[in-house]
Amino acid sequence: MWTVLIIAGLFEVFWAVSLKLSNGFTSTLWSVLSIAGMIISMGLLALSLKQLPLGTAYGVWTGIGAIGTAILGIVLFNESRDPLRLLFILLIIIGIVGLRARSV
Questions:
Q1: Does the structure show a pLDDT above 70 at 104?
Q2: Predicted confidence (pLDDT) per residue in 16-54, tens digit
Q3: Which residues have a Cβ under 8 Å from the Cβ of 16 and sit 6 or more positions away?
Q4: Which string of b and e fits 21-52 if b means at least 16 CB within 10 Å?
Q5: Less CB within 10 Å around the terminal CB: N or C of the chain?
Q6: Cα(9)–Cα(61) distance, integer angstroms
């Protein structure tokens, strides 16, 4: 189920970036892709919750989404590369690794 959860988190990143590209739902293609990504992401999260603890799964799912969107924001949209921001992204990664390690 961890693989399903990771894929769900990647789809969360996809829909968040698509939402940005939809320009406030004014671009039909990006709007449809964003909504499809939301549905897939939530569906896979729900599937992973059949076997994984809620707090762990939700924390990992949102963490993947936060890390992925922050990194893609930097790469695609020239968002801040402030060292403190990068440190906080690293702390989220550490939190995800810790949640995964403690759920074994």
A1: no
A2: 999 999 999 999 999 999 999 999 999 999 999 999 999
A3: 65, 68, 69
A4: ebeeeeeeebbebbeebbebbeebbeebbeeb
A5: C
A6: 5
The neighbour count for residue 61, using CB atoms within 10 Å, is 24
Q: How far apart are CA 73 and CA 6, in angstroms?
A: 20
CA-angle at 88, arms to 84 and 94, nearest 5°: 140
Cα angle 48, 73, 2; round to 5:
15
Contacts 24+ apart (CB under 8 A), 92-99: 92/63, 92/66, 92/67, 93/63, 93/67, 95/59, 95/63, 96/59, 96/60, 96/63, 96/64, 96/67, 99/56, 99/59, 99/60, 99/63
Residue 90 has pLDDT above 80, yes or no: yes
For residue 93, give both structure tokens.
């990664």
